[in-house]
Specification:
Blueprint lengths: L2 H16 L26 E3 L2 E9 L7 E10 L5 E8 L4 E10 L2 E6 L4 E3 L4 E4 L5 E5 L10 E8 L3 E10 L13
Parallel strand pairs: 2-11
Antiparallel strand pairs: 1-2, 2-3, 3-8, 3-9, 4-7, 4-10, 5-6, 5-9, 10-11
Length: 179
């Protein structure tokens, strides 16, 4: 790979890892929204058989084009579900991504077909692993603020949540250190 292209890819990955942000949004009538979840208080949110906990976003530097979001999803049902999409009011595009090591180089790529959450499984979206990417940020995400967006699941549907924005270098309440 040409050094300039490789530098751009590595630089973009570094921005993605250092400027994490996420949001979850709108629930269908069949979804149950647990108290406090829509206000960024850390209360779990239930949609269908899924329970979403510990959502957060990291503040971004001014002008950052991307942000990554983190949360945990537990499937209490008997059928698998998939995180297939979502949105953030402050971003133009949403993707589910994974990080992998390839010959000592951290690589990031979209997860084709969405992220599976098997019955009885908890999937953590965290720095250095699976995470949500918001691309084409329209504004800076500032520590202490909250952001709203959506998560879309194949079976459970769409859910709204407000995510707290943590300081650069901050961690989610799950104790995972950000990049």
């Amino acid at each position: 790979m040409l050094p300039i292209i490789r530098g751009a890819i590595v630089g973009t990955a570094a921005i993605c890892l250092s400027t994490a942000s996420i949001a979850v949004s709108a629930a269908p009538a069949s979804a149950q929204l647990m108290p406090g979840a829509a206000h960024g208080t850390g209360a779990p949110t239930k949609v269908g058989n899924l329970v979403i906990t510990v959502p957060w976003v990291r503040a971004t530097p001014k002008g950052a084009p991307v942000a990554g979001g983190y949360l945990s999803v537990t499937n209490n049902g008997t059928e698998p579900d998939r995180l297939v999409g979502g949105s953030l009011a402050a971003a133009g595009r949403f993707e589910v991504h994974e990080m992998t090591m390839d010959d000592g180089v951290m690589r990031m790529r979209p997860v084709a077909g969405g992220l599976e959450i098997k019955p009885g499984q908890t999937v953590e979206l965290k720095p250095g692993g699976h995470h949500v990417m918001f691309m084409g940020l329209k504004e800076q995400l500032k520590a202490g603020e909250t952001v709203k967006g959506t998560l879309e699941f194949a079976k459970a549907g769409r859910v709204e949540i407000t995510y707290p924005v943590r300081a650069l270098g901050g961690t989610g309440s799950g104790g995972h250190r950000g990049h």
